[in-house]
Amino acid sequence: MGHQAASAVAHVNPFADGADSRLQRVDAALERPRAGGAGSGRSQGGEEASGGRRKGRADGEKQIDTARDEGERAVADVVAEAQREADEYVAAKRARAEEVAADYVVTIKADIAEQ
């Protein structure tokens, strides 16, 4: 049973979908924070024009800080996902290598038993 699981894991390749589709997923993840705040800065024009320049500036700085935080979170999410994919890939390669090594030992044992 463990052999079957190792064999199944060995065929999993998180990188099989190609670099282009992975980059598209990264781009989409990085666009999410930008899309969330896209319209929020436009309402400041009326406040600034009516004498609320200080509040408008503070709001703008707050939006910039929020955008930076969201960007940092998006980068962290992309990196974490890439790390998970890499870890899965390494685990699959390890399982396959262990399976091949075990098969080799069995083959050598059989050869020695025949002699």
Helical stretch count? 4
Q: What is Rg? A: 27 Å
- The total of beta strands comes to 0
- Judged by helices, strands and strand pairing, the structural class is mainly alpha
Order of helical and strand elements? HHHH
Residue share in β-strands: under 5%
Low-confidence stretches: 1-10
The largest pleated sheet is described as: none
Domain module count: 1
A few lines on this structure:
With 115 residues, this protein is an all-alpha fold. Helices cover 83% and strands 0% of the residues.
Outline the secondary-structure elements.
Blueprint lengths: L1 H9 L8 H18 L7 H6 L3 H62 L1
Helix pairs in contact: 1-4, 2-4
How would you describe what is shown here?
- With 115 residues, the protein is mainly α.
- It has one domain.
- The chain is built from four helices and no strands.
- Helix 1 crosses helix 4 and helix 2 packs antiparallel against helix 4.
- 1% of the residues are buried.
- The N terminus is likely disordered.
List the keywords.
disordered N terminus
